[in-house]
């Protein structure tokens, strides 16, 4: 069975940062390895025939290059030189080195608003810090790339009509894929959703054939990282 795996990049990064320790949040190599490992894990399932990888498609935002005013210090910076910008550049380069993985970029909107990072929000709500203690690094540009859903939809339709695969795995928590997933199922393609342990609405079950998360739950994330850090097996060697 040939399997294509489509990864919603912004969703993947957000969920990894919610599940895994902060030490890996900006580690481009570890994050890229997690993309490959968690995707490739779908090729193996107990009591099921082994799947063969068609390709992993990773959809992400291009790196912001505009100059913006930081929310706390009010300094002007080039976003491509910010912590997040530098991470995204290094992360996408690491992904491009992975075997059978294609990086597809959407079209970014201008970043004219800021949002509070989840860790900082949790500290604020938990009264571990005050508003006056917030720093620029506690915020990220509030801009979602345009075109990701469209690109995913076009690729899903192409996979269906060309009958290139027998199974599609979607790493996303968004229901925007439902129409494309319905088309795939009508064409006889097995559709599996991996929401990375995020809760999904009941109506999504009518558009998928299976639900499976390959990443560890939060209470086992540190153990998982320790195990893969000592694992010398190169998952890039998994072949179609």
UniProtKB/TrEMBL annotation:
It comes from the Bacteria. Gene3D superfamilies: 5'-nuclease. Signal peptide: none annotated. This is NYN domain-containing protein. The lineage of its organism: Bacteria, Pseudomonadati, Pseudomonadota, Betaproteobacteria, Burkholderiales. InterPro entries: NYN (IPR021139). CDD domains: PIN_NicB-like (cd18722). Residues 131-193 form the NYN domain. Pfam families: NYN. It comes from Limnobacter thiooxidans. GO terms for molecular function: RNA nuclease activity.
